[in-house]
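About this split. The held-out portion is used to measure sequence recovery: a designer receives only the structure tokens and must propose an amino acid at every position. Recovery is the fraction of positions where the proposal matches the reference. Here is one held-out target exactly as it appears in the evaluation file.
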């Protein structure tokens, strides 16, 4: 539903970065990237905390600043929450990390590009220099789905860079959310010529790509992220045999080491340095992410890592309203 507000609108400015970090990508990506930046009304950004928005699969950061039917885009939501006094003023950056493979998991990859370095080494320094915001102890990262995965992994790997993170319905528990999709992906590849190269060619030439093909592309995006092969087409290989769909143990192990449930066992201690970690998931999430979220909160509790965990009565889709809770929760902690 659309929520009307009479609060003054903040300013959204558009910036461009020509990235060195992602120049290693195998996909032919455009290295010049949009970064939209929101600054609340009555502020120039100086001394405000900085949040970075990592969007889900098939989106780019500017999708969250665009006009939205029957509802608010994110800057409009921020205007309302800040105007109501619910959310302390903050700067929010919306980097464009869309790729030829339909999205991003926001980690460094020899096929996809070094997207973690892009965020931490290029986007954040540019925004902080331009707006005099953020800085040590005043940076937070948030996202949903693939963006939630990115936020969780960034918190785990870069706890001295980020001071807080929000993971909405993030990918974790790879054995549940991905392994079952390999057979489906092989069937779609078989339908389009039998090779990853022929599948990509068919997908990119289609007037209207099928939904099943979009889902298969997502698995190939994951493959290019978690287990790139420099000898393969676009660096993409699957962790299963192409004829019998049997897991190849060493390749699947490369995927599993990027599961947040694996990373937390190695890097969990660093999370104790965060000012805030927020995790939630819908209790009928259709991608089975609820179970990974429950495993994560159990592991964090066992390690004595302070965090906020919540389940809410909804699916994986259309849950941006959860930011009504998470963003104020985190920004108040960044201000502490």
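Reference sequence for scoring:
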């Amino acid at each position: 539903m659309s929520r009307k507000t009479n609060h003054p609108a903040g300013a959204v400015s558009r910036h461009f970065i020509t990235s060195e970090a992602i120049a290693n990508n195998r996909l032919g990506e455009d290295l010049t990237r949009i970064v939209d930046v929101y600054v609340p009304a009555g502020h120039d950004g100086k001394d405000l905390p900085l949040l970075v928005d990592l969007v889900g699969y098939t989106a780019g950061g500017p999708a969250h600043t665009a006009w939205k039917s029957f509802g608010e885009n994110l800057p409009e939501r921020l205007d309302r929450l800040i105007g109501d006094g619910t959310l302390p003023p903050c700067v929010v950056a919306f980097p464009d990390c869309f790729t030829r493979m339909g999205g991003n998991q926001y980690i460094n990859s020899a096929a996809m590009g070094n997207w973690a370095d892009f965020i931490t080494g290029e986007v954040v320094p540019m925004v902080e220099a331009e707006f005099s915001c953020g800085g040590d102890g005043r940076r937070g990262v948030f996202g949903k789905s693939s963006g939630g995965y990115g936020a969780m992994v960034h918190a785990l790997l870069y706890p001295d860079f980020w001071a807080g993170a929000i993971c909405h319905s993030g990918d974790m528990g790879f054995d549940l959310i991905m392994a079952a999709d390999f057979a489906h992906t092989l069937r779609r590849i078989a339908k389009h010529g039998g090779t990853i190269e022929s599948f990509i060619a068919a997908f990119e030439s289609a007037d209207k790509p099928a939904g099943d093909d979009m889902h298969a592309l997502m698995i190939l995006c994951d493959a290019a992220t978690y287990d790139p092969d420099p000898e393969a087409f676009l660096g993409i290989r699957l962790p299963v045999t192409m004829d019998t769909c049997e897991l190849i143990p060493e390749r699947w192990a490369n995927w599993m080491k990027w599961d947040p449930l694996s990373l937390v066992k190695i890097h969990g201690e660093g999370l104790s340095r965060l000012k805030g970690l927020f995790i939630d998931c819908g209790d009928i999430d259709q991608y089975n992410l609820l179970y990974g979220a429950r495993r994560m909160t159990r592991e964090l509790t066992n390690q004595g890592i302070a965090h906020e965990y919540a389940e809410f009565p909804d699916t994986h889709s259309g849950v941006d309203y959860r930011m009504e809770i998470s963003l104020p929760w985190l920004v108040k902690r960044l201000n502490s």
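Annotator remark: The first strand starts at residue 11 and ends at 18.
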